[in-house]
Amino acid sequence: MTLLAVRQLTAHYGDFQALFGIDFGVAEGETVAVIGANGAGKSTFLRALAGLIATARDSVVFAGRAIGGELAHRVVALGLALVPEGRRLFPSLTVEENLLIGAYAGRPGPWHLERIYALFPILAERRKLQATMLSGGQQQMVAIGRALMSNPRLLLCDEISLGLAPVIVKDIYAALPGIKAEGTSIVVVEQDVGQALQAADRLYCFQEGRIALEGAPRQLTREQIALAYFGV
Amino acid sequence: MPEAAIVAARFDVERGTRASRVAAGLGLLLLVAAVAMPWWGERAGQRLLTEFLYTLALAQMWNLLAGYGGLLSVGQQAFVGLGGYSLVAFGLHAGIDTFLVVPLAGLVAGLVAVPTAAVVFRLRGAYFAVGTWAVAEVFRLLIANSVSLGGGSGLSVTQTVRGMPIWWRESLTLWCAAALGVGATLGVYWLLRSRHGLALTAVRDSEAAAASLGVSVRRIKWCVYIAAAVGCGMAGALIFITKLRISPDAAFSLDWTVVMFFVVVIGGIGTVEGPIVGTLVYFALREVLSDYGSRYLIALGVVAVLFMLWMPRGLWGFVAARCELRFFPVQRRLKLATETQP
Amino acid sequence: MHAWLDTLLQGLMTGGLYALFATGLALSFGVMRMINIAHGDFAILAAFLAVAVAAALELNPFAAMLLVVPAMAALGYGLQRLVLNRTLGKDILPPLLVTFGCAIVIQNLLLEVFSADTRSLDAGSLGTDSLALGGGLAVGVLPLLIMGSAVAVLAALQWLFARSAVGRAFRAASDDAETAQLMGIDNKHVYGLAMAIAMAVVAVAGIYLAIRANVSPTEGPARLIYAFEAVIIGGLGSLWGTLAGGIVLGMAQAIGLRFDPGWGILAGHLAFLAVLVLRPNGLFPRTRDA
Questions:
Q1: Domain residue spans in chain C?
Q2: N or C: which terminus of chain C has fewer CB atoms within 10 Å of its end residue's CB?
Q3: Would you call C225 and B145 a contact, using CB atoms and an 8 Å cutoff?
Q4: Could you give the maximum distance between any two Cα atoms of chain A, in Å?
Q5: What is the rounded CA–CA span in Å between residue B148 and residue B140?
Q6: Chains C and B touch each other (3 or more Cβ pairs < 8 A)
Q7: From CA A105, how far away is CA C237, in angstroms rounded?
Q8: CA B143/CA B147 separation, integer angstroms
């Protein structure tokens, strides 16, 4: 069943058009990867879905409801959570407070503090520390946990491997199956194609604000992906 | 070697506009008429014009601070007051010629502004605003506690102009006001067209970006602060030459900054024309509403708030954006006439 | 010696009132990163409202406070949502200019309605009673009550910020407004709440001021400056620092006043300037709470 249906989505930063008629979909329980070079419009796309960038109302339909251009704080309450690029933890809040604030929208569901600590045990040890005192990987865990606390039906992850050592990226990606097992659909945006291919059921490749390629990773060849990614 | 295509670009760097040339001509005529007013005008009108011109000078100074320097000062009355009290110190006590006190007052205000800047520049943004205000209060209280300067109840400075024929005094006052009003306007205009103006505009648009381009943000702001203090100090001395009585409450009244604020917000913050338009509107409103007492100030406040919300660039900003009208063009415009020759 | 102890004690007690004035200012800067230039004028507005309500309904000042404080909180919420939220952004000028405009309007509105006469609230014997502390020292019941209120307000806010969901939302919105929205926080509503609290606290301060002394419609700016000085002396972003700042300011004024009646307020300003020069981050710099 379709959870998210995006049709002909466009987005602008002032006079600059960043996205040109994106068609995109996520099924219930599916993990979808979005890859593409720097500046291809991946982050803009996620920000538009999360309500941070104005879009046409009908261009985003989530769980049967048109939510394009809805205010960001309402989008979360409907069950669509974004792990923003660069983690964006609240520096004046502790680890635990960062997680608790994720539950501000008050959606019921399987995720609560103890469940997050079970998923990322290291965070339980560091719960009283200021969030910004953690290592990059641990901060990323807080950012993911914080988004999960809103019990989303769809979790959007923007470049969660950015700036992290490969071994730590592996740790973080290891958490995705556990999240998926709760029935949460996931969209991961990555520049790291290998990582994305392993985790995803389906893949979209963005190029200059348009979708250049779509398909299941197993059905796509390296050459196809390289062409769609670099456009050469 | 292949024959290179030669691109001959002919262009003019246009700094003036037709509007600016018309304005310059018109302005000159108005200025001549204003300066000659003692010979053709009546005294009430002459006093009003004097007030108009020094209000314009104050507004230009505040516009320079807030509109270009990004320094929101709520304490410019500090320098108006210091200028006024320079009149007491130099004119009354030292017996220096009254109108020579005006430039002297600017000097005093500028000198006092140096240590003041050292203190208030420790505060940023919103805190700077209230900090300047606190400093103005300090000056007010210091003078209110100085018996030789008249203490809290103030004193008359009529003595400074005694013996001067009234026609001569009022004419000189008007000419001084004209020099300040026109001087402030042209001074800001000249500053903006200079190399420093470019830096100032960069600072206004983005402090971080300007700093990364090697503009010393702090120094520019410091210069603007000192310059505005000098201007306000000179205007302050002149104001109390016209009033002939000074007290700490009147000299360091917040109302001076309120007027500057109102004029600049209505007219258009960050434009040279804005304060002129704003001063005109302010005087017009005052004439119309003067019978209403404090209700007139309520109306002014409401108008200012509405302007900030719906027309944040003021009347002039609104007009200029739609009509491409600039009497004081500060930007250089490139007019291209490109031909490609084989 | 005894006289000096008495001076310091009175200064300490004045500090409680200054802290109440300063708290709202610290709160609105802490959450919205804006300074309400009309802060003091709203305090005076609340005082005059209480005078009017007490006279019209024949209430005692504390009953009037119970009516006026919620009304001021509602006004604060409305002002933030309808006016001030529209001015927030990268540029710091608009909120300052708009609240400056509000200050002019409120002052002249009060002059128009209440004339330039000073007013006060009569709290009966409470206004004059005092407690003997031994050694000839005495402290007024009212100043003690005000100090107690200041401590109670600060403790409540401390709890709110540190422990409650709304407090976390305040801090999150202050840290990073955009990401706060991603958490389901409606920033505009949160800012409205913060302004409502700030306005309620400053209303309490204004009403206490009118019980203690005569207030005039044009007194708001002076109150803003004292509040601001208390915040800076205490250290930006520190709730308890505002109490310390208020006390330092109150004591400096009391000491100045002992030397010469004209030097009281000036001594307060000089204490502020001294802190600004010597310790620009205040006595208790901390940016975590508030």
A1: 2-278
A2: N
A3: no
A4: 50
A5: 14
A6: yes
A7: 27
A8: 8
Instruction: Report how far residue B232's alpha carbon sits from residue B234's, in angstroms, rounded to the nearest whole number.
Output: 6
Q: Which of A73, A84, A91 sits opposite C185 (nearest CB)?
A: A73
Amino acid at site B22: V
Cβ–Cβ contact C93 with B under 8 A: yes
ipTM of the assembly?
0.91
pLDDT category of residue A193 using cuts at 50, 70 and 90: confident
Task: Give all strands (DSSP E) within chain B, no chain letters.
Answer: 6-14, 155-156, 245-246, 333-341
Q: Taking CB atoms and an 8 Å cutoff, what residues of chain B touch C93?
A: 66, 70, 72, 269
CA B103 and chain centroid, separation: 16
Task: Give the span between the Cα atoms of B54 and B46, in whole angstroms.
Answer: 13
Q: Give the span between the Cα atoms of B257 and A200, in whole angstroms.
A: 63
- Touching A: which chains, 3+ CB pairs < 8 A? C
Give dist(CA B19, CA A26) in Å, integer.
59
- Strands A31-36 and A202-207 turn out to be parallel
Q: How many domains does chain A have?
A: 1
Phi, psi of B245 (to 5 degrees): -140, 140
Q: Chain B residue with minimal CA distance to C280?
A: B122
> What domain range is A193 assigned to?
2-230
- Please tell me the distance from the alpha carbon of residue C223 to that of residue C211, in angstroms, as a whole number: 15
Q: How is residue A68 written in tokens?
A: 């394009």
The pair of structure tokens assigned to A108 is 């019921």
Which residues 168-187 of chain C have a CB within 8 Å of chain A?
A: 168-169, 171-172, 174-176, 178-187
User: Which tokens sit at C189?
Assistant: 């509503």
What are the tokens at A25? 């979909």
Q: By the 8 A CB rule, do C21 and C227 touch?
A: yes
- In total, chain A counts a number of residues equal to 232
CA A174 to chain centre: 15
Query: What are the strands, taking DSSP E only, across B118-240?
Result: 155-156
CB atoms within 10 A of CB C28: 28
- Distances in Å between the Cα of C230 and the Cα atoms of B1, C27, C223, C238 are 77, 13, 11, 11
Give the Cα separation of C279 and B121 in Å (integer): 14
User: In this structure, what DSSP letter does residue C221 have?
Assistant: H
Q: Two tokens at C274?
A: 């001294």
Express each pLDDT in C23-61 by its tens digit: 999 999 889 988 899 999 999 999 999 999 999 999 999
- Both tokens of C184, joined, read 């389901």
In chain A the beta strands, taken as DSSP E runs, fall at 2-13, 16-27, 31-36, 60-62, 65-66, 80-83, 154-158, 185-190, 202-207, 210-215
Identify whether the C-beta of residue B114 lies closer than 8 Å to the C-beta of residue B227.
Answer: no
Q: What is the pLDDT of residues B6-59, one digit of tens each?
A: 444 566 666 667 777 888 888 888 988 888 888 888 888 999 999 999 999 999
CATH 2.60.40 fits C2-278, yes or no: no
Residue C94, strand partner residues: none
Please indicate whether, in this complex, the C-beta atoms of C104 and B297 are within 8 angstroms of each other: yes
What is the C-alpha separation between B267 and B253, in angstroms, rounded?
22
Q: Which amino acid is at B261?
A: F
Count of alpha carbons within 13 Å of A10, Cβ hemisphere only? 8
- Which residues, including other chains, have CB under 8 Å from residue A96's CB and lie 6 or more apart? A113, A127, A128
CA distance B280 to C44: 33
Q: What are the structural domain ranges in chain B?
A: 37-252, 255-324
* Segment A86-143, tens digit of pLDDT: 999 999 999 999 999 999 998 999 999 999 999 999 999 999 999 989 999 999 999 9
Nearest Cβ partner for B305 among C35, C102, C109: C102
- The residue among A83, A77, A62, A55 whose CA lies nearest residue A156 is A83
User: Would you call C218 an interface residue with chain B, using a CB distance cutoff of 8 Å?
Assistant: no
